[in-house]
């Protein structure tokens, strides 16, 4: 699961189940309730968040992907990059190490404009 700020950073995690409790807990943990817009797809699990967040959604189930400024293209772009690397670089990933792969691509995405990404990566060693 992932959340992203428009033209900003991403937070991505591996979740066991995509049930309402898990999805809502993730949103409450990583999304500020001071955001001006929280855009999701039309999964019913997000409906309970509407009183806490200015929540708008696109109806993917009806083929709607953009409605004015409401879209999920940013997070879908992140997952597209992740999937391309699975196919093009790693070819296969095990579930055991999936959190590490997701963390790697979260780091890469969040440092995409960093000219010294390698230095940043090893600075914590």
Radius of gyration from the CA trace?
16 Å
Uncertain stretches: none
Total of helices: 4
Identify the overall geometry.
globular
Q: Report the major sheet.
A: 2 strands, antiparallel
Kindly estimate the percentage of residues that lie in beta strands according to DSSP.
5-15%
> Into how many domains do the coordinates divide?
1
Mean pLDDT: 93
Specify the structural class. Answer: alpha+beta
Comma- or semicolon-separated keywords:
125 residues, two-stranded parallel ribbon, 4 helices, 38% helix
In short:
This protein has helices at 20-30, 73-90, 98-110, 117-122, and strands at residues 2-4, 10-12, 38-40, 55-57, 66-67, 70-71. With 125 residues, the protein is an alpha+beta fold.
What features would you describe in this structure?
The protein is α+β, with helices and mostly antiparallel strands and 125 residues long. The protein has four helices and six strands, in the order ββαββββααα. The protein has a two-stranded antiparallel sheet with strand order 1-2. A hairpin with a 5-residue loop joins strand 1 and strand 2. The chain is globular and about 45 Å long. The mean pLDDT is 93.
């Amino acid at each position: 699961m992932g959340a992203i700020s428009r033209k900003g950073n991403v937070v991505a995690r591996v979740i066991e189940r995509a049930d309402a409790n898990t999805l809502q807990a993730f949103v409450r943990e990583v999304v500020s309730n001071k955001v001006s817009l929280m855009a999701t797809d039309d999964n019913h699990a997000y409906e309970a968040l509407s009183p806490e967040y200015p929540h708008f959604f696109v109806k993917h189930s009806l083929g709607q992907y953009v409605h004015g400024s409401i879209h999920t293209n940013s997070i879908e772009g992140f997952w597209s990059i992740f999937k391309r690397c699975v196919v093009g670089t790693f070819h296969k990933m095990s579930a055991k190490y999936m959190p590490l792969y997701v963390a790697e691509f979260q780091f890469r995405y969040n440092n995409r404009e960093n000219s010294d990404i390698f230095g940043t990566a090893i600075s914590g060693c």
